Amino acid sequence: QVQLVESGGGLVQAGGSLRLSCAASGRTFSSYAMGWFRQAPGKEREFVVAISGSGSTYSADSVMGRFTISRDNAKNTVYLQMNSLKPEDTAVYYCAARSGRRSVAAAEYDYWGQGTQVTVSS
What we know:
Blueprint: E1 4-7, E2 10-13, E3 18-24, E4 32-39, E5 46-51, E6 57-59, E7 67-72, E8 77-82, E9 91-99, E10 111-112, E11 116-121
Parallel strand pairs: 2-11
Antiparallel strand pairs: 1-3, 3-8, 4-5, 4-9, 5-6, 7-8, 9-10, 9-11
């Protein structure tokens, strides 16, 4: 069982930056692929970025070059650095974990955090 707790959300102006953190419980954090997803009001949850246990990453086109995922296995934490934020990035951001390879499919993730709100004002 893995528990995930996100933090770092908030209100920021367009063009600003935020860093989200996701702290994970468990002894085998390094074996999990981690992903960030987001869900805006009235929209489906969408993939943002993912990282494998070894550190390889994959980003959605909409955030490529602006968002960066990283992980610190010693701290059982994954981060999402968000730069050049746009109003359309406004959403609840969720951290997720799965055994095995990274994935863009939300259905393939086994564990989810409670989400953290990110609001970007224009």
